[in-house]
Write a structure and sequence with these properties.
Elements (H helix, E strand, L loop, with lengths): L1 H5 L3 E6 L2 E7 L6 H13 L10 E7 L6 H15 L7 E3 L2 H22 L3 E10 L5 E12 L2 E3 L5 H7 L2 H21 L7 E5 L9 H11 L7 E6 H6 L1 H13 L3 E7 L8 H4 L4 E4 L1 H7 L5 H14 L4 E4 L4 H9 L4 E3 L9 H10 L6
Parallel strand pairs: 2-3, 3-4, 6-8, 8-9, 9-10, 10-11, 11-12, 12-13
Antiparallel strand pairs: 1-2, 5-6, 5-13, 6-7
Bound molecules: ligand C2E and calcium ion (CA) (2 copies).
The site of one calcium ion (CA) has 4 residues, from loops.
Amino acid sequence: ARVAVALHGVAGYLGGDNFVIAFPVQDQTDRQTLTERFERELTTYDVAEGFAPSAGVVVTDDLTTSMAILYDRALVALQEVKGSYTKHVAIYDELRHERERENQMLLIRAREGLSAHEFAFYLQPKVDIQTNKVVSAEALVRWIHGGEVVPPFKFIGLMEETGYIYALDRYVWEAVCAWQRSLVNRGLTPVPVSVNVSRVDFYFTDLAEHFAQLVDRYDLPTSLLGIEVTESAYSEDADFVNDVIRRMQGKGFVVYMDDFGSGYSSLNMLRSVSVDVLKMDKGFIDQASTDGDPDAIISSVISMAHRMGLPVISEGVETEDQRDSLRAMGCDFVQGYYYYRPMPVEEFERILREGDNVER
Ligand code: C2E
Ligand code: CA
Ligand code: CA
């Protein structure tokens, strides 16, 4: 309250250990200094046992803002420090809450988009590095919203935070199976297509059972559906995840370790996980053109994988040079713009129908 008064503001006591403070400022830039000043002030109240005051602070340069709105914002700020032992003060952050509001709106629109069938998948071929022919493809989700194609990085992370990803993924997996079935029905010969599994999905259902029922429902052989599990899922709860994966493999699904090398995993981790194919993260390829001797790293990943009987796919191959050096290092497959970008299913169907560039 002393600081609040010094700053020509008002302070309110909400009961318990909780305070709210509002005061005017000329400009809103120096939040750090303000926070530190409040922290100092609060800690001088040599916190008596059982009393740990915390304050939600709102500052404004607009003196017409109503007290009710300022109070709401101070409460939002207070929520941030409630229960924290190290932070006692938070200042309402307009930009951050604006972003959070936008994210919430995005999630609501995505939820509506899912029921309105605005989500589709593109296909990106995986190519045999020796023959340059398509051996399989990966399904990559796209949100067709307001005439635009929204890329996954805009919404996947947000959906993972809220668990909503599971609904989206189920939708994509099913759409892929339905499409594979329609190919067969139209007399085309399909190739295996892999789908992405978020680490979050493992905690929603028994994925092995889920995928088995799915291919069963569409009367497809399990070999036509690949499953890409990102490296970080493996490291999160290794025993549990490996058990699910082993059961998927037992049912005949091909399991890919996605993004290998993007996190903290080591070559050694490969010994303890179950996986059928290794997908080397794009980061490896990108480094190859800059850092010291990354080729040495790439070759040791490839030879280690081969020693364990795992074929290797390189992601994000964009140039002929990259392809050539990967080929020289014994890489088996590539997926990247150099060969094909992700494309709508109709375009991929043309490749299948023509057949010349497909390896069966
Ligand atoms: P990912 O699984 O590693 O997929 C590969 C990404 O690399 C795709 O991005 C693809 O378009 C991009 N890519 C392929 N070749 C090249 C290349 O030569 N150069 C460059 N710069 N990029 C290349 P996309 O489609 O934007 O997807 C990004 C990520 O979003 C995916 O990374 C995957 O983690 C996630 N994602 C995509 N679809 C789904 C889905 O249905 N479910 C879940 N849970 N995640 C998905
Ligand atoms: Ca993937
Ligand atoms: Ca990847």
